[in-house]
Specification:
This protein has 444 residues and is of the alpha/beta class. It has helices at 87-91, 94-98, 106-119, 132-142, 158-175, 197-209, 223-231, 236-242, 263-267, 277-282, 290-295, 315-330, 338-352, 388-395, 422-443; strands spanning 3-12, 20-29, 32-38, 50-53, 57-61, 63-68, 122-129, 145-152, 182-188, 214-218, 250-254, 271-275, 299-302, 370-374, 401-406, 409-413, 416-417. Strands 1, 2, 3, 4, 5, 14, 15, 16 and 17 form a nine-stranded mixed β-sheet that branches. It has a four-stranded parallel β-sheet with strand order 6-7-8-9. Helix 3 (106-119) packs across helix 15 (422-443) and helix 13 (338-352) crosses helix 14. The radius of gyration is 21 Å and the shape is globular.
Length: 444
């Protein structure tokens, strides 16, 4: 049994226990947390395979990025000034690039995305895209935990529908052979917008077949509700409920314009709203009613969205924007306390992915998914008054992260990647972008 002792750190356990150890230790055995406690209670005279002095450091659970599209680092900077929250904006910018990209452009983009998440403290993420045959090997090599959803866009075309559903089925079958830390999900891009009710029913059946969930975009504006009121005389959520979709876990990115009368039905379902605050602001969209939805009992998770809508993977920045935007929307300071924001970024994401029993807090028996931050940099002081929750949400960023661990394995050690070659991935990505833009010009 491999053992690792992290000692003399400020430890934030988060989760139900919410324990804080001012000078604490974490004992890791293989891939799980064996013990967490105060240094004064550390058993003496025990041998550990690895001892890591964490004096001057803070240890907390790894962050969960509950909505992104990793291959889209390829498009970073190519959708400036465009709202990707509308079908027209998305189709006439990003979709035109997707139609000329090739499969061999995906691996470097995914490696860049994974490296950026590891570097800034994300240990688990939820992805939705196509070319999953190219995505999965890179994510497996990265060491990250992930829920990978095959993205479906069919736009009412029955040929495209049959093709994409067959690919989803094959993808989910293959995911059964992947490492345990990788899940396969179904990824309809957007219900009622570019996935028809016929596709939605077939996707629900696939989710049931493989006992998984649906990763979607929902309510970035009123498109779904307008469609459903016209065709079914009801809201989109009510129609989803009637179709049996709310019986499956749903990861719903954005969830900005869901009518409040639909909130109780969502709270009673395995539904999670994933707020992506920077993406909303860049798109000129409304702020998601996170405070109201959370009070209604809906699980809230945090995501970055793609890096065309956001431009970086730093969830610490997203926590800050989320807290500020919540106060702005509600018209009162502290509308979403810092401690609650940390919950959303950790345990909220774990619950959304069905992993609350495994990750999200530092409890003995759970997976050893954690991050270490340097408290010697800017933003932490003065220590008597600037509590660690406030500092993490409002003062520091992901570049304070020095070490990232998943399943008891270091993915980042002393600010150096251990599983990925970021510099080489960036070099390859730059060459891929040149080819992409050349292909777009040739297609015009």
């Amino acid at each position: 049994m491999a053992t690792t002792l992290l000692h003399d750190a400020l430890i934030l356990c988060l989760g139900p226990s919410d324990r804080i150890h001012d000078r604490g230790y974490i004992l890791i055995e293989n891939d799980r947390i064996a013990a967490v406690g105060d240094m004064a209670d550390l058993p003496a005279n025990r041998h550990y395979d690895e001892r890591v002095d964490c004096a001057g450091k803070l240890i907390m659970p790894g962050m969960v990025n509950a909505h992104t599209h990793t291959p889209m680092t390829l498009f970073r900077g190519l959708a400036e000034g465009v709202s990707l929250f509308t079908l027209d904006g998305w189709y006439n910018s990003i979709r035109t690039l997707e139609l000329v990209m090739t499969a061999d452009m995906v691996p470097a983009a995914v490696e860049v995305a994974c490296a950026e998440m590891i570097r800034t403290g994300t240990t688990t993420f939820a992805d939705q895209y196509f070319y999953m045959d190219q995505v999965v090997p890179v994510v497996a090599r990265s060491g990250l935990r992930a829920a990978l959803a095959y993205g479906v866009v069919e736009l009412g075309d029955p040929v495209a529908r049959a093709r994409e559903l067959a690919r989803v089925d094959a993808f989910l079958e293959d995911m059964g052979q992947q490492p345990e830390r990788l899940q396969g999900w179904v990824g309809p891009h957007a219900f009622f917008v570019d996935n028809t009710p016929e596709s939605m029913q077939a996707e629900r059946i696939l989710a049931e077949k493989y006992n998984t969930g649906l990763h979607i975009h929902l309510s970035t504006n009123n498109e779904e509700d307008d469609y459903c009121r016209e065709h079914f005389g009801t809201t989109a959520v009510a129609q989803m409920q009637q179709m049996g979709l709310l019986q499956r876990p749903i990861l719903a990115a954005h969830s900005i314009t869901i009518p409040p009368e639909d909130w109780p039905a969502l709270a009673a379902s395995p539904f999670s709203a994933v707020t992506c605050p920077s993406a909303s602001m860049r798109a000129g969209a409304q702020a998601a009613p996170v405070v109201g939805m959370r009070a209604a009992g809906i699980n809230i998770a945090l995501g970055t969205d793609n890096v065309c809508n956001n431009n970086d993977y730093d969830l610490f920045i997203q926590m800050r924007v989320l807290a500020l935007l919540a106060s702005f929307r509600e018209g009162r300071p502290g509308a979403l306390p810092a401690r609650d924001v940390l919950d959303i970024a950790t345990t909220g994401g774990a619950q959304a992915l069905g992993l609350a029993d495994e990750i999200g807090d530092l409890t003995p028996g759970k997976k050893a998914d954690l991050i270490v931050l340097d408290r010697g940099g800017i933003g932490w002081t003065p220590l008597p008054s600037n509590d660690p929750f406030t500092a993490l949400v409002y003062s520091v960023n992901g570049l304070h992260v020095t070490d990232t661990m998943v399943d008891g394995q270091w993915l980042l050690r002393e600010r150096q990647w251990t599983t990925l070659d970021y510099a080489d991935a960036v070099r390859r990505q730059n060459e891929d972008v040149k080819r992409l833009l050349a292909r777009r010009v040739a297609e015009k």
